[in-house]
Amino acid sequence: MYTARGIILKREDFREWDERVFLYTREFGKMSVVAKGTKRIEAKLRGNLDIFNFVDIIFVEGNNFFILTGIDTRERFQDIVKDPYIYGAAVSCARSIADIFEENLRDRNLFNFFRKTLKKLHECAQAEDPGLHAWLIQKKFQMTILENQGYSMNAEKILPDYTKKFSKNSLILLEMLRGAKHPSVRLSRRELWDIEKAFTDIFEYIFRYRFSSWIPII
User: Fold this and answer.
1) Which regions of 62-211 does DSSP assign to beta strands (E)?
2) Contacts of 48 (CB under 8 A, 6+ apart)
3) Would you call 97 exposed, middle or buried from its count of C-beta atoms within 10 A (0-12, 13-18, 19+)?
4) How far apart are CA 26 and CA 138, in angstroms?
5) What pLDDT score was predicted for residue 160?
6) pLDDT the model gives residue 165
7) What are the DSSP E strand ranges found in 15-53?
8) What does the pLDDT read at residue 161?
9) Residue 129: exposed, middle, or buried by beta-carbon count in 10 A (0-12, 13-18, 19+)?
10) Average model confidence (pLDDT) across the chain
11) Where are the domains of the chain?
12) Are 71 and 49 contacting, i.e. CB atoms less than 8 angstroms apart?
């Protein structure tokens, strides 16, 4: 029997009444477990398997997969689903971990940052412009993944053509996402699209992974 603390990334159908649940855990990194019978309305495990839930799980080894035997929700980020922009940003963050990272590669710093990212997305539902806040949080998360994998969000090194497209304000925003202090910066819709396209192309170029592009309405 094993235990782990993690965040639910996604669920997939698995056999007639079962589901395969993918999590990013503190103890094992990305992993998956089979939740037996959770397609049945009366299933005991069903109520704790919402995407983004921060959970404690108990599981055992099966013939080919780990089998989920117990789950307890520690935190629900319920406000994420109230806004389509926030939800889209959260799904993008979760799917990037699910699709890019191999299983059983533990990284507690990334785990803690992922949890903080979901918490920020949950809280930004109360912001004046939740869509813009969600987009910025998503860009910060994507930048962190690049740095985690040994890359810097430096267009000049990865895709040189982008240095010609980025405006001064776009470069300032990237510096701010890295933690640099600037009073404020105002970007046009065109500048936001340039940044979004750069991230999309860089992820596809490095990881062979393409996420859905979007920018907030400004």
Assistant:
1) 66-75
2) 55, 71, 72, 73
3) buried
4) 21
5) 58
6) 75
7) 18-25, 29-35
8) 65
9) middle
10) 89
11) 2-75, 79-207
12) yes
Strands, E assignment, 45-130:
54-61, 66-75
In this prediction, residue 159 carries a pLDDT of 56
Q: Angle, nearest 10°, between helix axes 168-177 and 130-148?
A: 70
Task: Read off the tokens for 104.
Answer: 């059983």
CATH of 2-75, one of 1.10.1510.10, 2.60.34.10, 1.10.760.10, 2.40.50.140: 2.40.50.140
Place of tokens 């009444």: 17
Neighbours of 154 (CB within 10 A): 14
Rounded CA separation 65/125 (Å): 37
Question: Are 49 and 11 a contacting pair, CB within 8 Å?
Answer: yes
Distance between CA atoms of residues 140 and 156, nearest Å: 19
Give the residue ranges of the chain where pLDDT is below 50.
none
pTM over 0.85: yes
Question: What's residue 215's pLDDT?
Answer: 87
- Residue-level pLDDT at 162: 65
- Strand locations in the chain (E): 2-14, 18-25, 29-35, 54-61, 66-75
